[in-house]
Specification:
- Two copies of one chain form a homodimer.
- By secondary structure, chain A is of the alpha+beta class.
- Chain A is about 40% helix and about 20% strand.
- The first copy, chain A, folds into two domains: about 60 residues, Winged helix-like DNA-binding domain superfamily/Winged helix DNA-binding domain (Arc Repressor Mutant, subunit A, Orthogonal Bundle); about 160 residues, Beta-Lactamase.
- Chain A contains nine helices and eight strands.
- In chain A, a hairpin with a 2-residue loop joins strand 3 and strand 4.
- In chain A, helix 6 packs across helix 8.
- The first copy, chain A, is elongated and about 60 Å long.
- The termini of chain A are far apart.
- The interface between A and B is large, with 66 and 67 residues.
- The structure holds a DNA duplex.
DNA sequence: CATAATGTTGCGCCATGGGCAACACTCATT
DNA sequence: AATGAGTGTTGCCCATGGCGCAACATTATG
């Protein structure tokens, strides 16, 4: 239930259902054909046949011969090709490594994915914190430095579309209203970088700056993050300038952008 | 050309074609509908419709409105769900971080994917080398420490199936024959860990040990790697024991496995 | 051992997805 | 500018391919 049964433009139904299966497996982690068929509103046999198609290509694995299914390694392989072709990531290693070395914290690159922030590349800093691998994880836009950077320069309607589904208070300093977020984004545009001071989870601090393409559009965000024990609020201004400078180097246009 | 047109068991053709598109895009990096249609041996319109199905789910992105396509962020999101559900990776962060800290080198977890080695999780060591992110990358089995670990304990037919497609000499010490590989694997089983001394690329050293499930089967490999300037051949024995011990902690059974 | 689950496979029928061709559009070339 | 060849997208109509049904094989559970 809760499925989006809107017939999105003109597409191929069986493919659409197969891709639905992937999303369902991503949510449940491991499922049988029957419950998936129920979710899709199709017969068991249909789900089974779609599943074998996915299985042949390695996008799903069957856990115990006859039995349940889970997402497969083929997806990891494909995802590797994605990030290597992302403009922001390609050729960014030298810069991100240098940044991680300079500030001694974890460095990530993130992009906007509808109204979520998706982490696509990561370098872990020398301090060896380190929080878990963020790759492929997505988080809301309103409580992260990356989210603010990625939305601040959007047009108003796009900004609204990028707002979170709920304004639940996730951490001590979470932003919990659209008005407060707009004010925050004003400040981000002013300063040219964004910060998050324990807004997604407590003890978690981050500073982010925009990566722009050759037209000046913000296409990705460069972010450093670490525990409150090492990143203090009074360091924000200094770190912001550092991150901003690194992000400029990654921008499509070699010239720095003035803001 | 060179397509595998074997009708793999009973699957759904349109889905199969759609997944073919993903693999084609992974190889070419960015393609138009026409050349993909030629590769699939179908009409442009068919390829276009399949593409929109993939587009609606975010598995591909169109680069410039009207125009070419590339793999999309949806794949990264899905791949994130894969690794987090992998037995070997879940709950491994504490161990891998400790290992990276102890040896000061990059730590990876890899699994066997047909006859290739696929890297699924990574922690970068404090020395900040660091080679590029290995995630989602796949390499042959015969010239890597991980490949040896992942194949050494397989049955003979499985070992043969896991052999590389070509025995091309990739680096100074590459193994270039099945016989030499079998002898090497004997040694791996003996020692309980594997090494690679500039076998894939020069200046690149690695030491790997097996991660086993509760039945004792090798399901993943834990590996440390770094440049020859820091990892010497005479360190192999010491590092091997360290990696072996960390890998034991990751194995499904809390008891250590005797070999 | 019986019962109730599961996932997989022939088999027809009808929907659906494929090919065709016309269209919209971008980019070179003259 | 105007032409041309290239692209990707969209109605249309027919038959192919995918769906539901039901029987089957297999495994869990009593």
């Amino acid at each position: 239930m809760g499925n989006t049964h809107l017939a999105e433009s003109s597409s191929v139904q069986s493919v659409d259902r197969a891709l639905s299966i992937l999303e369902i497996l991503a949510q449940r982690g491991e499922s049988g054909v029957t419950e998936i068929a129920a979710d899709l509103g199709v017969h068991k046999s249909t789900a089974s046949r779609l599943m074998t198609a996915l299985l042949n290509r390695g996008l799903v694995d069957q856990v115990s011969d006859r039995g349940r299914y889970r997402l497969g390694l083929g997806l990891v392989r494909l995802a590797g090709s994605v990030t290597s072709s992302l403009d922001a990531v390609s050729g960014s290693r030298a810069v991100t490594k240098a940044l991680a070395n300079e500030v001694g914290e974890t460095v990530n690159i993130a992009v906007l994915d509808n109204n979520r922030v998706l982490y696509v590349d990561q370098v872990i800093g020398p301090s060896m914190v380190s929080m878990r691998s963020w790759l492929g994880q997505s988080v809301p836009t309103h409580c992260t430095a990356t989210g603010k950077v990625l939305t601040a320069w959007l047009d108003k309607p796009e900004r609204i579309a990028a707002r979170p589904n709920s304004w639940k208070k996730l951490a001590p300093n979470s932003i919990t209203s659209a008005d407060a977020l707009e004010k925050e984004l004003d400040q981000v545009r002013d300063r040219g970088f964004a910060v998050a001071n324990q807004e997604m989870e407590s003890d978690f601090m981050a500073v982010a700056a925009p990566i722009r393409d050759e037209h000046g559009e913000v296409t990705a965000a460069l972010v450093i993050s670490g525990p409150a024990s090492r990143i203090k609020a009074e360091d924000f201004e200094v770190l912001g300038q550092i991150v901003k400078q690194s992000a400029s180097k990654l921008s499509g246009n070699p010239n720095f952008w003035r803001e």
